[in-house]
Amino acid sequence: MPKTLPGIGTAALAIPYGPPGAELAPPDRLAARHTLQVAVERGVRFFDTAPAYGEAEELVGAALDGREDCTVATKLAIPSGGWEALSTQETRAYVRASARSSLKALRRERLDVLQIHNADEALIRRGVVVAILAELREDGLVARIGASVYGEPNALAVIAEPALEIVQVACSVLDRRPERHVLPAAIAAKTAVVARSLLLHGVLTPAGRGLGGALAPLSAAAEEVRQAFGVSWEDLPGAAVAFVASRPGIAHALLGPRDEVELTALLEQAGRFEEVAGEWDPALPLLPDWLLDPSCWAAEAVVGG
Length: 305
What we know:
The protein is an alpha/beta fold. It has helices at residues 29-41, 56-63, 88-106, 121-126, 128-139, 152-160, 182-189, 216-229, 236-245, 260-277; strands spanning 5-9, 46-48, 71-75, 111-119, 142-149, 166-170, 192-196, 252-255. Mean pLDDT is 94; it is low at 300-305.
């Protein structure tokens, strides 16, 4: 089984990010660009971004300009009225316009990877967007196509679609749902898996210690993970990254650093735990699906509340 390689997710470099009540503002453009360049210096060669992440595409384009040894995965802009509101002709125009915009922002002649953002089973099975992405690939504007999804049924729909080569899913020590069916199916279909949300939106970091209200079970579960791994809260992020990277079937595990300090700490901590992470199999209480999906977290849930 090929070794899981680290990648960089760029949301935290361009938009506020973190658990409710503990979100951090993104760094300034110069610092964000520097973080990306340091990642390259540290050997990272896979970067994931999206139009939905503010200026992230432009930051990646500026930082990696001319770096043909780096793979950049971006996503389609999400239509304001949803894909179902567009006719086939409108969808084709929209997809091509999104791809052209990403090419310009990323300073590339061809997109390495283009994914449908927040795809669902119905959209994949309808086939229109997938077919248009395949057209872009045939035209040479895109090298590989895939989809970023939430939930097992949506991930399995992507894996079952022969035209799609990559599926991006949330995966962490608190959210091990992909290990049940998604990762085995991806291995069988030779679909590359990109794992994101390794720290569950900051829950598996020191910021997750004080989550209260409806999110208190997440804080308690993170503490159980820390104890099971036998690490400090400061080392928990690196251990959590190493855990996901040890799961069979994952091609890239996306780190989401906000700055060079976080990037360096994650890479070094994950490296320290690499040898033992594959042996970890903590027995944790099952959390309800909504707690594992940050988009469902109640707005009133605040740190310490």
